[in-house]
Amino acid sequence: MKDEIITYLNDPGQLEKLYRTSKAPFKRAFGTLYPELKGNALADFWHERLSYETDELNWGSSREVRFIIITALVAGMIAKLPAILNIDPEFFYSRNIGFIVFPALTAFFAWKNKLPASKLSILVGLTLVGALFINFLPNDKKSDTLILSCIHLAVFLWSILGFAFVGEVGNNDQKRLSYLRYNGDLVVITGLILIAGFIMTAITVGLFQLIDIDIKTFYFENVVAFGLPAAPIVGTYLTQTNPQLVGKVSPVIARLFSPLMLVMLVIYLVAIIYSDKDPYNNREFLLMFNGLLIGVMAIIFFSIAEMGKTVRSLPEIWVLFLLSIVTIVVNGIALSAILFRISTWGITPNRAAVLGSNVLILINLLLVAVQLFKVVSKKKSLPGVGKSIAIYLPIYALWAVIVTFLFPLLFGFS
Questions:
Q1: Does the predicted TM-score (pTM) go above 0.70?
Q2: Best exposed site among 84, 249, 293, 323 by fewest CB in 10 Å?
Q3: For the chain, what is the largest distance between any 2 Cα atoms, rounded to a whole number of angstroms?
Q4: To the nearest 10°, the Cα dihedral for 394, 398, 75, 64?
Q5: Where are the domains of the chain?
Q6: How far is the C-alpha of 145 from the C-alpha of 405, rounded, in Å?
Q7: pLDDT (tens digit, 9 = 90+) per residue, 43-92?
């Protein structure tokens, strides 16, 4: 996006077309470029235009609204397939819940970015391969590889969505960081939409109960069934057409939770010493420990992604550096516990998957911590920190492919 802005800087028409095509990425890229372009008449004009904030909500063009409505309806129909085709709900949702929303979001960004037919066919092909593979796996409810495939399939579909968002296969660190920011913004706006939907549902059902009409079953089977998948789709559309909508909320959340998570983790590590539970002999505790690790890592990565939008003070960068160090300690404990369990009880699909995931996360966290240390010691600038995350995202996607598609074959569907 930056290169395109510079290319069209002397062509107002093309610059306007570029902005209308991808408003949110354009605004972020221009914001980082403007200090270098300051003094250029057209750049100054665009700075004033993009800095102007209106209280009005931009609903985009009628064509875009129609596309969103259609994709939301299709997502709702997919969610209703068990009722329509008399499919076992447990079988369907455990394997296909990711296909309710991710393909719709992928279609939106593929359409928005005007991806060529060659790239579009790759997206469709990968999605179909995932759908066919997961639904033709043996229906053994005790199979660990089936559960692992279902979980990592969501990461695989998330990676396909990222491909549609970025629009390119090559090195494009800024767009990958924008994808992480989009995920953070989507969580915020979807959460708000769901809260509003919950309140509306409670009021609607309650009002009809007052007049002795029970609409609960109908409402949940139809309105809620379509509303839940529509929430992230509508949320995506709102964040892309109104970048300012949650633009100030997400950085605040990142800044607020980073120091809180640092304090919580330190206290938690101390508390483990005095507790009678440890991840070496307690499987459930190890799973929760790894869940905590992934959650904290997500906050670190989201906070670093937000660095591209706002200027960070040195204390805030120190907080992220210390949080990454403490998270590395947590990861080290989890990794040692996994190795202990493998050496004691042998290798299993679950242990292999967790081992691989923890090794990848540890390497990524070390890269991030090194870059953050260089920033706090004033040996390097902030962009290097974001790059250490952006270049690593395809590796997570590759690991998701391995666990989803190869683990069932390697471990004999056990």
A1: yes
A2: 84
A3: 70
A4: 20
A5: 2-51, 62-241, 249-380
A6: 9
A7: 777 777 776 655 556 676 788 889 999 999 999 999 999 989 999 999 99
